[in-house]
Specification:
By secondary structure, this protein is an alpha/beta fold. The chain has five helices and five strands, in the order βαβαβαβαβα. The protein has a five-stranded parallel β-sheet with strand order 2-1-3-4-5, with helices on both faces.
């Protein structure tokens, strides 16, 4: 199964850097948008497993993006990316359902790949639990 990853960042270079690295992972279908409103529309129209979103963007901040994603599909995993560390923002994002919070620039892209793999493992565990429960939830 290919996992769909969406990168939302107003910096196209960040999107391209992450995409280039993740393309080597065979079970990933990676896309990116520079406009968070466009990203939310994509999530409304297709199943996205993991979203990496910047927290600071002109059209909409990452916290609003996170809230919108969780209203659309609570199982979509959201990783917040930021160049500005703030424990208050990190706590807010995590309390709103973010899977993780990472700082840019990335020390190593291997750390981003590892985080994606950990998140995929979490999705796999959740799917097994949901299937065993017999609930009719869109996976």
């Amino acid at each position: 199964m290919k996992y769909k990853i969406l990168i939302i960042d107003d910096d196209i270079n960040i999107i391209e850097t992450i995409k280039r690295r993740l393309v080597f992972e065979s079970n990933l279908d990676v896309s990116g948008v520079t406009n968070p409103i466009e990203g939310i529309e994509l999530i409304k129209n297709e199943k996205i497993d993991i979203v990496l979103t910047d927290i600071s963007m002109p059209e909409m901040d990452g916290i609003t993006v996170l809230r919108n994603i969780k209203m659309i599909d609570g199982l979509t995993q959201v990783i917040i990316m930021t160049g500005y560390s703030s424990s208050d923002k990190a706590i807010e994002c995590l309390s709103l359902g973010a899977n993780d919070y990472i700082l840019k620039p990335f020390d190593e892209m291997d750390n981003v790949v590892e985080l994606i793999n950990i998140t995929i493992d979490k999705i796999i565990r959740w799917k097994k639990i949901i299937i065993k429960s017999g609930k009719n939830i869109k996976l």
